[in-house]
Specification:
The chain is elongated. The N and C termini lie far apart (63 Å). By secondary structure, it is an alpha+beta fold. The protein is 45% helix and 19% strand.
């Protein structure tokens, strides 16, 4: 049997992002638990789209200015999860972000994620004119973002 790391590298050279069934098919005879250990040792990312079911090796993506990488319809973030990525995108934006802005940047619907982040106090939501803007949870930073938006 081939060593798992070179075999995984070879597999990801053929397809930069795969779900676990595809990885297991290419790593015949290796258990899912072993594959997860191999991926962890090599450094991997799971997608923020598709409920995190796609994987890539950490060295493969070339991230854009937002820290995002798209492989077809599958989306990855150097920040990890969709929640972490949304928080970073909102908190680093000088004027916060609207739902529509986030949806365009991320390439998927984020309504439920935003609601959950506001409920968990990880973000704040402020109405600016006729639109809601998501801002930093820190009141001073949020005030500065709202002022910048106006």
């Amino acid at each position: 049997m081939r060593e798992p790391e070179p075999q995984l590298r070879s597999l990801f050279r053929r397809s930069a992002a795969m779900d676990m069934p595809a990885i297991m098919s290419g790593m015949a005879g290796r258990s899912m638990r072993s594959i997860y250990r191999d991926l962890a040792r090599m450094g991997y990312l799971s997608s923020y789209s598709h409920a995190g079911k796609y994987y890539t090796l950490r060295h493969i993506p070339t991230f854009d200015s937002h820290g995002l990488w798209f492989h077809g319809e599958v989306r990855f973030s150097k920040h990890g999860t969709l929640r972490a990525t949304v928080v970073m995108l909102v908190c680093q934006a000088p004027a916060g972000r609207t739902h529509e802005e986030l949806q365009v940047i991320l390439g998927l619907r984020v309504h439920d994620t935003l609601r959950s982040l506001v409920e968990d106090h990880a973000l704040r939501r402020e109405q600016v004119e006729a639109v809601y803007v998501y801002v930093d949870p820190d009141p001073k930073r949020a005030a500065a973002q709202v002022a910048q938006r106006q």
